[in-house]
Amino acid sequence: MEIIKAKHSGFCFGVKRAIDMVNKLLKEKDGPIYTIGPIIHNGEVVTLLQDKGVIPVDDIRSIKKGTVVYRTHGILKEEEEYLKSKRLRVVDATCPLVKKVRQEAVKLRKNGYKVVIVGDKNHQEVKSILSYIENDGIVIDDPQEVKGKKIGVVSQTTQSRELLKKVVDRLLEGPQEVRIVNTICEAVELRLREALKMAEIADAMIVVGGKESSNTKKLYKAIKEVRARSYHIEHECELNPSWFKGIHVVGLTGGTSTPDFLIDRIFYGIKSLCGGKDGGDS
To answer: 125, 145, 177, 236: which one is catalytic?
Structure first.
């Protein structure tokens, strides 16, 4: 059996930047380090950082001293204002692209546009964007009518380009002015395109990433539509020998918050189960 590993996998720029910032703080050893919620959506990485002393907290009011790191998906505007008022040391690890979405949403609102965010209303990134426009926006995850003379559209960074196009097409059916700012992460799109090509030639696909990771879940869903024998796992212990019966080629990819070491562990896990040979990068 041949195992093909995606060339574009492992941490994206924003996630790598955030983890590098935390590791730099750990080397400084200057008091406790907190993150507002998990810094990224990967349980293994969060656990490793916890073991080193990085503490995720949900209630920022429980933090009395130390350094507070903003997660990659961004924090709420009111959380940022509270931390500044308490004069706590903060390190902003928000992904630069997520910040760009916030900035574009703010500009659209200032210029009189009704802001539409294409995304998941329960995702932290979307909640962060909304908070910076005083929650004066509409979040949608399917094509629908939106009333208003001027509509400004941004997207959660991990949304699919296909969904954004469908939403915009529906909005363009109305009489209103529509302005679109494409804020989809290119790293997410690049992985998706590569993974779909792999799925066409592989007999089975393994997608590695946190079960809470938005981009990993979307990646898996898209691959599953092309290759029915596809599996989303977080750890090598989840590998099932029955998945590989009659399989000649298996493709391996991961989300933008999945570390290289985890993808490598699962690669060797598949090899040990099936005696697969290295097909190299796709």
So the answer is: 125
CA distance 54 to 46: 8
Q: What domains lie within the chain, and their CATH numbers?
A: 2-10+186-281 (3.40.1010.20), 13-94 (3.40.50.11270), 97-180 (3.40.1010.20)
Q: What is the DSSP letter of 113?
A: P
Task: Tell me the pLDDT band of 275, cut-offs 50, 70 and 90.
Answer: low
pTM for the full model?
0.89
**Catalytic annotation on 225?**
no
Closest CA to 97 of 114, 73, 121, 116: 73
Nearest to 195 by CA among 203, 187, 205, 185: 205
pLDDT tens by residue, 37-78: 999 989 999 999 999 999 999 999 999 999 999 999 999 999
